[in-house]
Inverse folding.
């Protein structure tokens, strides 16, 4: 088993150069994905019992109302990707991977979101380009094709509370369970404790997962979660379930980040996974609002991806980041940015804004870009007491 896993690992890391191997590999990946989608659609995973003896294909097929032979072929295909297993007697059983994805609510939601939303969206890029060509409008996207709407992504979610709730749960799953995008990475790369009794504005903070994590880890911090109406309602309901000594340090505020920032001179304005949803002109506007509210002491922390130049990182990381870059294109006509792109949007937002550091914690897909007004660059370089990790501006920590 260990050897098999190693072989799969190698295939991901090393491109196959012979055409037959390459094309077969693509086909196999598609088939593996289609089987996962089928298993999800017919809700097969919860029907596989936890017994060490497994469950017969016939029993599962009957419960799900699907043909037994199809179920067997599908499950055995999924097994080639390391998902599900069979007992020596030929009964269907979970392996550790399929059981975790079936039982963990965050992973299960993420799995469903991929199958029902992210991947179907990929297929809509062709009709979107056929229809709108080079348009960069946020309403000329694959998402507009898929949902048959003229509204932009977040506008459409406002009209569909079911999809809004799905999206918020997806964001929570990314914050809590996705090893590459977990909030914990944010705790490592900035010296929050050194801020002491400080005010952090979590701009576009969704239902508050990040603010709650920060408040738990740093008891002196005060936080304000800002977002649109629906996520702020979810944040309020989440906060109402917390102990008072925690919830009293976290405020909520309905705020559109394209309008003037109401909180002046906060110690930190945090933009976690925000700017990649917006094309440059809009990202500049969001940053302009923050620069106008910032004091020389304020830090603007941008936690987002920094795209590497092709071939400069590991294939696995680059593939994950480029997948996200395309996902931003599909949903928003937006993109992930390279270092120079980040420098440009900050500069355009306010000539005084500069990048102090860019750090990417080990295992994180996100980098944390620490920016501030140029006047703030005092004698210590303005790195907020984390000079041991300080990297030259524009340098990616690997
Ligand atoms: C990709 S999510 C990131 C959420 C959160 N920062 C996190 O790290 O999980 C983007 C967030 O931006 C919010 N948003 C979108 N448009 C907004 C606007 N005009 N003003 C404020 N928030 C907005 C969305 O509601 C959503 O919660």
């Amino acid at each position: 088993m260990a050897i098999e896993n190693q072989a799969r690992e190698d295939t991901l890391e090393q491109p196959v150069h012979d055409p037959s191997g390459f094309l077969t590999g693509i086909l196999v990946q598609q088939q593996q994905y289609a089987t996962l989608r089928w298993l999800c659609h017919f809700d097969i995973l919860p029907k596989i019992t936890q017994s060490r003896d497994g469950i017969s294909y016939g029993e599962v097929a009957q419960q799900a109302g699907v043909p037994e032979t199809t179920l067997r072929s599908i499950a055995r295909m999924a097994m080639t990707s390391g998902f599900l297993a069979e007992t020596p007697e030929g009964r269907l059983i979970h392996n550790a991977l399929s059981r975790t994805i079936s039982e963990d609510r965050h992973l299960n939601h993420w799995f469903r979101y991929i199958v029902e939303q992210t991947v179907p969206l990929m297929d809509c890029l062709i009709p979107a380009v056929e229809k709108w060509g080079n348009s960069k409008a946020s309403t000329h996207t694959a998402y507009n094709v898929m949902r048959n709407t003229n509204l932009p992504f977040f506008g459409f979610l406002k009209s569909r509370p079911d999809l809004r709730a799905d999206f918020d749960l997806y964001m929570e799953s990314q914050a809590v369970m996705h090893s590459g995008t977990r909030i914990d990475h944010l705790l490592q790369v900035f010296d929050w404790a050194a801020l002491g009794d400080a005010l952090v504005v979590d701009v576009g903070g969704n239902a508050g997962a990040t603010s709650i994590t920060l408040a738990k880890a740093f008891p002196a911090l005060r936080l304000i979660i800002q977002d649109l109406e629906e996520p702020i309602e979810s944040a309020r309901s989440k906060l109402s379930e917390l102990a008072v000594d925690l919830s009293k340090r976290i405020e909520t505020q309905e705020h559109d980040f394209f309008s003037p920032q109401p909180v002046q001179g906060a110690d930190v304005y945090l933009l976690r996974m925000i700017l990649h949803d917006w094309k440059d002109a809009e990202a500049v506007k969001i940053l302009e609002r923050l620069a106008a509210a910032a004091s020389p002491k304020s830090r603007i922390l941008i936690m987002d991806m920094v795209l590497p130049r092709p071939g400069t990182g590991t294939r696995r990381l680059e593939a994950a980041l480029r997948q996200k870059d395309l996902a931003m294109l599909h949903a928003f006509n937006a993109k992930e940015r390279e270092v120079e792109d980040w420098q440009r949007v900050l500069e355009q937002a306010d000539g005084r804004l500069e990048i102090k550091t860019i750090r990417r914690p080990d295992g994180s897909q996100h980098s944390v870009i620490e920016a501030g007004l140029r006047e703030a660059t005092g004698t210590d370089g303005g790195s907020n007491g984390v000079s041991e990790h300080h990297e030259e501006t524009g340098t990616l920590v690997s």
